[in-house]
Specification:
- The chain has 217 residues and is an alpha/beta fold.
- It has a single domain, classed as Purple Acid Phosphatase, chain A, domain 2, CATH 3.60.21.
- 17% of the residues lie in helices and 30% in strands.
- It has 3 helices and 16 strands.
- Helix 2 runs parallel beside helix 3.
- The protein is globular.
- About 5% of the residues have low confidence.
Length: 217
């Protein structure tokens, strides 16, 4: 297993993994955001030529993370779907993923693309728009909470490092951690760090942490 980067969020030991996932050891749980299943299939159905196989690759990455961490569950922080839920290509990939990971419990916090998720028949638990778990509030889009640290996705944060291509990144804010989009076929929002914030770029193999120093005075 890639040991990743160990850190504490709201006092809870966690690990950032290079393949765009957060691991919660005490719960044996993977946390990912923004799968966007079938995004390329949806574009192809609309007549836009794009390569196939992206969904299968993303789900294969998730299965590998589950095996390497020993996770018993995976919680997805919104946008499991991208568009149509009836396209055969990505559904075949999903069913193959579930056959390969029958003991992995999948649960979802609803995102803005997940309106059709309840009727999609994907063998997963629906947690609603937000769920409180330990010291965390898990939701899709960032928000402030007076009592809990927010774990979320939605923004697809990316970080540009000097001399390197931009990379997906975890955005570590004071009371909120924004996960990178798990899907490889997504755009991104460049991060502008405020004082005291950090970002951790992840390219699937390595993690690079960048911190913005606290402003003087």
């Amino acid at each position: 297993m890639d040991d990743g980067l160990a850190l504490a969020l709201a006092g809870e030991p966690m690990r950032l993994l290079a393949d765009r996932a957060l691991y919660w050891p005490a719960r044996r749980r993977l946390l990912v955001a923004d799968l966007h299943l079938g995004k390329a299939d949806t574009f192809r159905a609309a007549g836009i030529a794009l390569p196939s196989g992206g969904t299968a690759l993303d789900l294969g990455r998730l299965a590998t993370l589950a095996r390497s961490t020993g996770a018993t569950s995976a919680w997805i922080l919104g946008d499991v779907l991208h568009g149509r839920s009836d396209l055969r290509a990505w559904r075949r990939a999903w069913h193959g993923f579930r056959e390969a990971t029958p003991a992995l419990q999948i649960a979802v916090v609803g995102g803005n693309h997940d309106r059709a998720l309840a009727g999609a028949g994907l063998d997963l638990a629906l947690l609603g728009d937000a769920v409180e778990e330990g010291p965390f509030l898990l939701r899709h889009a960032p928000a402030r909470d007076p009592h809990r640290h927010v774990l979320c996705g939605h923004l697809h944060p990316v970080l540009k490092l000097p001399g390197l291509a931009r990379a997906p990144a975890f955005w570590l804010r004071r009371d909120c951690t924004v996960l990178p989009a798990f899907s490889a076929f997504t755009g991104g929002t460049p991060i502008r760090l405020a004082a005291g914030e950090a970002a951790v770029a992840c390219n699937g193999e390595a993690l690079v942490e960048v911190r913005r120093a606290t402003s003087p005075g």
